[in-house]
Amino acid sequence: MRFPGFLSISAKRFLFACSLSLMALLAACGGSSTTTGSTPTAAPTSQPSPTAVVSPTSGTTLTTYTGNGYTIGYPQGWKANASGKNVVFSDSSGIYSLTIVVAPDPAGAIGPDTVVNTAIEAVKNTVKNPQTVNVPSSISIGGDSWVQKSITGDSSAAGQTGTIQIVVASDNHPANSPSTNSFTITYETLQATFDAANTQYFQPMLQSFKFTA
Predict the structure, then answer these.
(1) In 3D, which of 41, 51, 160 has the Cα closest to residue 95?
(2) Is residue 129 packed enough to be buried (19+ CB in 10 Å), middle (13-18) or exposed (0-12)?
(3) What's the Cα-to-Cα distance from 146 to each of 77, 98, 100, 195, rounded to whole Å?
(4) Closest Cα to residue 13, out of 158, 116, 141, 126?
(5) How many other CB atoms sit within 10 Å of the CB of residue 18?
(6) Closest CA relative to residue 152, chosen from 137, 167, 139, 138
(7) Which of 86, 96, 144, 92 is nearest to 119 (CA)?
(8) For 7-11, 45-49, 63-67, which range has the lowest pLDDT when averaged over its residues?
(9) Which of 14, 65, 86, 171 has a CA-to-CA distance to 209 between 20 and 30 Å?
(10) Are 164 and 189 in contact (CB under 8 A)?
């Protein structure tokens, strides 16, 4: 069953907890003292004109977004909302959501596995009955191998309860450089609709992701 607006509230709560954990982790190694990871913006002056591309797997038409050190396509009709180091792509109902967090991590002092584990622990603190989902430990995005994990959990908002599934993937790019950034992608929806959304939306978006620096 879908709950209009339910996931958007859940996602915001998760992102708040996750972002705080990630920023604290990176700040512990001095990552936040650099200016490499400037905040991406969705303002027209910082983006090229939207470019339509077609996913080879689903035929979903995507619009290109330019962020901090990357580009990614998102489905037409979705919105891109930038806030701090986060950019959230979501449909109008808030049922489907993909978030990218970029933060400076000079020389890759914090490994992607640590970032993913920290994010997963943050998720566990925002849901009930967390359960690990068996997914491949790595995934190729933008030509790099990213560490990934997935979890499900029950979340309540506006008097409604549903089981959501979240995937967290992280990578350091470029590796072992003074200008290394930590890239973290999370995507989520209700567990009951996850497989269909993964095929129609999330995988085409991940396939379109490209590093620009």
Answers:
(1) 160
(2) exposed
(3) 28, 16, 13, 20
(4) 126
(5) 27
(6) 167
(7) 86
(8) 45-49
(9) 14
(10) yes
| Token pair for 158 | 């506006």
Tokens for 87? 């950019």
Collect all residues with Cβ–Cβ distance below 8 Å to 12 and sequence separation of at least 6: none
| Contact yes or no for 164/10 (Cβ under 8 A) | yes
Q: Using one digit for the tens of pLDDT, what is the confidence trace for 70-112?
A: 999 999 999 999 988 889 999 998 899 999 999 999 999 999 9
Which DSSP helix (H) or strand (E) runs through 168?
A: strand 160-173
Tracing tokens 């950034």 back to the chain, one arrives at 181
Q: Pick the range with the lowest mean pLDDT from 25-29, 149-153, 167-171, 173-177.
A: 25-29
Q: Higher model confidence: residue 21 or residue 126? A: 126
> Which residue do the tokens 């596995």 mark?
113
pTM score, whole prediction: 0.80
CA atoms within 13 A on the CB side of 21: 20
How large a percentage of the chain has pLDDT more than 70? Answer: 71
Average pLDDT over residues 115-139: 93
Cis amide prior to 204 (ω within 30 degrees): no
Annotate 29-54 with b (16+ C-beta within 10 A) or e (fewer). eebbebebbeebeeeeeebeeeeeee
Residue 193 CA to its chain's centroid (Å): 18
